[in-house]
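Hello, quick one for you while I still have it in my head. I'm working through a protein record and want to make sense of it properly. Would you mind checking whether the tokens look sensible for this chain? I owe you a coffee for this, so here goes:
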Amino acid sequence: MRSWVERAARRVRLYRPDGNPLRRTVDRVESAVVAAAVTLTVASVPVGVTMGMAIHEGELAAERAGRWVTGHLVTDAPKLPWVSADGTSVPVLAPVRWREADGRVVTVRAVVPRVAKAGAAVQVWLDPAGNPVTDPPDRTRSAARAVAAGAGVPIGTAGVLLLVYAAARLELDRRRSAAWARSWEIAQRGHRTV
């Protein structure tokens, strides 16, 4: 049984450009399609890495720009079911008030604990625009999104190029078969004259 290295080396020899007179135009076109697909896939790796890094940096910047504030619950938390009809958790929203450093009093609706009573201290995460959001960005999710985007670009590129190669290969095989049929017909005509 051949190792994958031997099979890969055989493929490289099959597609490498050389002066072999037995190679037909369709063989050279197939080699060019494979070379272009490999080149584009390899070229997409730095694009994916750059995209992943940009996503990760953007989410870290959002985390650094956000902030925690401690407010006080204006009213008791409403009594809501723990789970909705479709099985998802129901967040409890209630008005929370706090005083900013410049003296402004801010009141917003934010997610609060289910059993919180009026006047209870509540932590609220504010995004860079000062709007309350459920939680600060999760670093694990940020990293996962960055890795998914970074890996998704070359994988997606390779997938698309593999489909292009498969379509090109079908057409090239059709032409190759037609050329073999023509060559066979010419050879058969030559044998009939004897």
User: Anything to note?
Assistant: The chain has a mean pLDDT of 84. The chain has three helices and five strands.
